[in-house]
Amino acid sequence: MVQARDALGQSRPAVVAHDVWWALGLERLLPETVLFCVQRSGAVERLRQRGVEVFCLSEHVSDPRVAYMSAVDIFEHPSARAFCAGLGGFTVIAIRPNARLAGAIEAAGGRSLGSPHSLDTGRRFENKLAFVDIARKAGVPTPRWEIVAAHNGGSLDQLSRRLGPRLVVQAPRGNAGQRTWFVDSQASLDAIRAAEGDRPLRVAELVEGMPFTANGVAGPGGEVVAAEACRQVTGVEWLTPMALGSSGNAYGEPLLAPHAVATAAAVSALGSALVEAGYSGMFGVDFVLGPQGPVVIETNPRLVASVPLASQLEISAGRVPLLLSHLLAGLEAAQAASVDGDAAPPLAGASQVMVRRLPGDPGARPEMATGVYSVAAGRAPVFLREGVYVDDLAGEDEALILARDATEPVSPGKEYARIFVRGPGAENHPGVREAVTALRG
User: Fold this and answer.
1) Of the candidates 374, 370, 349, 365, which has an alpha carbon nearest to the alpha carbon of residue 426?
2) Cβ atoms of residues 52 and 90 within 8 Å
3) By the 8 A CB rule, do 384 and 441 touch?
């Protein structure tokens, strides 16, 4: 903490996200941290009651289009400018940093973490087509894959002879399963080509197995630190309509433990490639645990969805969270990596699911207080007490529910609530599905 404060100087740390639960973690180590969010939830007030300073844009905007606003809109709003003027300097960690956001932060009197070159490098590594060559040079295990022109990449039979009988087709960009397709017929391949036009696509063999994610931090001095992997909650039909769509994360999955060394080696190799290309900061690596071990699918050089949960578990275990290492890396502090080393205490098992607005969901949602609920199969959740962190959960028959206020609009397909439970299987936890149903109304 001393190192972080020295690197920050008179500047206060800040984190900006659309919903405040994406921004959680750093304020527990550095209480002077300021949180910025676009839309309001009960968690905003709970955090303020615990002494955390939070600016919420929707408290200053009476416009249903707030659901489509971004972090840029926060720092361009007059109320935010006035709020920022009272901070005396601030350094912002953004979930999805970009040049326009950096300009808005600077105009509001702050600075954005990460250099323009680092941001550009991160965008290149995140491109699924560019990643084919990046992964090859890094020497990490990948599926058989190739880049094809959408309009003339060969028939399904030709592709299958080269890559395997079941294929996954992906566009250069898209998250949470968007613009990612299973292909098992010529008709489905033709439909993708019709939708994508002349744009190139990545075609890969489908690796059967468990999807999982491991996060790391690439330091400006070349150091790379990797943390434990978490299983992805993927393809659960009552959470997402996309077969490959991720809807949560689970720490403590026992099947991942035997592959920790191989996973860390792949994360380290990609982290070194990022450093060499000019990136510093946090990154996530998506894998599938296949029959022969971990296979790398992609990397996302930014704060990914598992980070808020991971940060809370790392802090509870007495460890240096990767989020703090990310801050140090962005500030180009002398030691940007975690100092836990091999003696790092294990993380407790916990998991989360994201609740998104799906096609057919009711237009109006019931109000659900932010806090800890008793959950059980076959009944609606019962509110027990206020809460905002995983540490507020006392047992495995409880769930922490953080949700936008019922008056807050939700754009189609977007997340508006998150549910946390103890243990590594939130999607199979008794009562979690009932909690999701209650949130949707």
Assistant:
1) 349
2) no
3) no
d(C-alpha 255, C-alpha 258), whole Å: 7
> Could you report the per-residue pLDDT of 354-388, keeping only the tens digit for each?
999 998 898 889 999 999 999 999 999 999 999 99
Q: Which residue is it, tokens 């920022």?
A: 84
Which value, to the nearest 10 degrees, does the dihedral of the CA atoms of residues 272, 273, 278, 281 take?
-50
DSSP state of 139: T
Long-range contacts of 54-60 (CB under 8 A, 24+ apart): 54/20, 55/80, 55/83, 56/20, 58/408
pLDDT of residue 230: 97
Return the structure tokens found at 413: 């397909």
pLDDT one-digit tens code per residue, 5-25: 666 777 899 999 999 999 999
* C-alpha distances out from residue 47 to 29, 32, 346, 390, Å: 14, 13, 27, 13
pLDDT along the chain (441 residues), means of 10: 69 96 96 97 97 98 91 97 95 94 96 90 94 97 90 80 91 74 87 83 94 94 91 92 86 96 97 95 97 96 95 94 93 57 78 94 91 96 97 95 96 94 91 95 87
Helix axes 116-126, 260-277, angle to 10 degrees: 130
Q: What would the two tokens of residue 76 be?
A: 């361009």
Extract the tokens encoding 289. 């645990």
Long-range Cβ contact pairs of 68-72 (< 8 A, separation 24 or more): 68/411, 69/38, 70/18, 70/38, 70/101, 71/16, 71/17, 71/18, 71/36, 71/38, 71/95, 71/96, 71/101, 71/104, 72/100, 72/101, 72/104
Residue 274 tokens read as 């990022």
Residue 72: phi, psi to the nearest 5? -60, -45
Residue 215 near residue 226 (C-beta atoms within 8 A): yes
Rounded Cα distance, 416 and 414, in Å? 6
> Edge-to-edge strand order for the sheet containing 12-17?
53-56, 34-37, 12-17, 90-94, 111-112
Phi first, then psi: give them for residue 377, nearest 5 degrees: -60, 135
Element (H, E) at 240: none
Copy the structure tokens of residue 93.
């960690």
- Locate tokens 């769930």: which residue? 399
> Alpha helices of 39-149 — where are they, by DSSP H?
42-49, 71-76, 78-85, 99-107, 116-126, 130-138
Question: Six-digit token pair at 168?
Answer: 């996954």
Separation of alpha carbons 89 and 111, rounded Å: 8
pLDDT of amino acid 220: 85
Distance of CA 123 to the CA centre of its chain: 15
Distances (CA, A) of 46 to 13, 42, 165, 413: 20, 6, 51, 26
Q: Confirm if 401 and 435 have CB atoms less than 8 A apart.
A: yes
Instruction: Using DSSP, state whether 241 is helix, strand or coil.
Output: coil
Query: First-to-last CA distance in the chain?
Result: 43
